[in-house]
Amino acid sequence: MNSILRLDNITKSFPGVKALQGIHLDVAAGEVHALLGENGAGKSTLMKILSGIYQPDEGTITLNGETRAFADYHDAVAAGIGIVFQEFSLIPFLNAVENIFLGRELKKGLLLDRAAMRRSAAAIFARLKVDIDLSVPIRELSVAQQQFIEIGKALSLEARILILDEPTATLTPSEAEHLFDIMRELKTQGVAMIFISHHLDEIFEVCDRITVLRDGQYVGDTAVADTDVSRLVEMMVGRKIENSFPPKPAPRADAKAVLEVEALQIDKDGPVNAFVLREGEILGFAGLVGSGRTETALAVIGADPAHVKKVKINGREMKLADPAASLDAGIGILPESRKTEGLITDFSIRQNISINNFGKYRQARFFIDQRNEARTTAAIMKRVGVKAPTMNTQVSTLSGGNQQKVVIARWLNHHANILIFDEPTRGIDVGAKTEIYLLMRELTERGYAIIMISSELPEIVGMSDRVAVFRQGRIEAILEGEQITSNAVMTHATTASAGSIEQGVSHE
Q1: Check: CATH 3.40.50.300 for 280-299+322-506?
Q2: CA dihedral of residues 431, 433, 436, 438 (deg, nearest 10)
Q3: Could you please report the per-residue DSSP string of 354-399?
Q4: Which of 70, 109, 216, 306 makes an SS bond possible with 76, Cβ 3.0 to 4.6 Å?
Q5: For the chain, what is the mean pLDDT?
């Protein structure tokens, strides 16, 4: 193997924590090398060492046969290592050219050579076979285009090793496939890539070899051709997971309707939908990206406007004019973007869980009963299984799975009994997914009702008691029991049925 990068015995400790111990990684030129592990396994720490952000306590980094020690990020970039973080580092008010050359602008005498920078940027995107409008601000481009600009920025620095940290987390399937085409093209140009992803199907689609970490330690490496999903999961979590999804309960004929959407029309000329959510069930919202799943949920709770809306909570007609009114009615939402919409990441776990409930903790007009707040927070953390040193730990330091649990804990603390989970396991590892699934089932056993919006077909089939399948804003079918299969969901998601059209008209 033509090794371009080798890490040997990398060890790193922080106060009270050994983050990495004896890590090995060997990457060849023109190879896509997957780095796998649960959240907290040490992937990000290892990549920060490779990119000069952290310094290892022990171990060596060998680049092109030469032992290197990177003093900082800029030193690593100068050595040909580029990293595309999951959180973009682009300036939204600047265009693609200005972002790529920020801090190292080309000049002609004392003036900026804008023409040269534009030609250089155009050449990079031509190399990537990506069409980018170089004149518009970044904020006007799609997430996928911003991702490609991050890659172009790294390549403009002549990176020969490219680190891609969860690059598909916010991409649609077609955008992800475009990214994979770019990665395949870069392979032919000899660029080595380290690919971090929680989606194991992506690993088998685009990667050549895999290194697995667990609890900060090296587990092993393997060629993609020599392994399968079951083996990788076992390497990642240290045990076999025969079935990620807990068993579904038997349907209850006496389950009462807690949420009845008798008519919902988002746009004046759009379809009219209706559905019922029952106590103790998980109702899946399935469909292709853009099918109207999330839009329907947001219109129900008043976060988005609706042309027609007739909703009942526990048999009582409700207006639900805005999310605050919906929360008062007992509806909580775990949004798709937990970091920007579900949490205040600079706040502690305690503050995030308590933020909707300060009124009940008020001891006097300007004081909070901190003892009562702490007692309640500790109990709810234990109940949902939040793993953290203390309740005062800052939420930004938690893994994705634990952040999801904090959002859930907030709504349970507010006594919401109808929960909307929008992409509940996006961006979290396989072990944490299983914990979220078990928690959801535990909640439904206690009588909570859940709407689960998910783009992952196995998740929809494995977790839902009933499934509402959306297509172009319309509920095409509601499946239950043995009707819930991958084929049935995809058939309804991609094909209009006369029955659903008639059903939609009948509610107008």
Answers
A1: yes
A2: -70
A3: HGGGHHHHEEETTEE-HHHHHHHHHHHHHHHT---S-TTSBGGGS-
A4: 70
A5: 85
What CATH number labels 3-237? 3.40.50.300
Q: How far is residue 223's CA from residue 34's CA, in Å, rounded to a whole number?
A: 10
CA dist 381 and 492 (Å) reads 39
Contact between 297 and 453 (Cβ < 8 Å): yes
Alpha-carbon distance 487 to 19, whole Å?
43
Pairing between β-strand 66-68 and β-strand 217-223 as defined by DSSP bridges: unpaired
Region of 468 on the Ramachandran plot (φ > 0 left; ψ -120 to 50 alpha; else beta): beta
Q: How far apart are alpha carbons 233 and 304 in whole angstroms? A: 39
pTM of the predicted structure, to 2 decimals: 0.60
Closest CA to 216 of 436, 17, 401: 17
Asked whether the CA dihedral 414, 420, 422, 426 is positive or negative, the reply is: positive
Asked whether the beta carbons of 407 and 343 are under 8 A apart, the reply is: yes
pLDDT tens digit sequence for 407-436: 888 877 877 899 998 888 877 777 778 888
CB of 162 within 8 A of CB of 82?
Answer: yes
CA distance 4 to 483: 51
Instruction: Report the distance separating Cα 127 and Cα 114, nearest Å.
Output: 20
How far CA 258 is from CA of 38, 65, 161, 196, 282, in Å, comes to 36, 65, 53, 41, 12
> If 0-12 CB within 10 Å is exposed, 13-18 middle and 19+ buried, where does residue 355 land?
middle
By the 10 Å C-beta count (0-12 exposed, 13-18 middle, 19+ buried), 487 is classed as: exposed
Question: What distance lies between CA 278 and its chain's CA centroid?
Answer: 28
What's the CA gap between 428 and 237, in Å, rounded? Answer: 13
What are the pLDDT digits (tens) for 69-103?
A: 999 988 998 899 988 877 677 889 999 999 998 88
Give domain limits for the chain: 3-237, 280-299+322-506
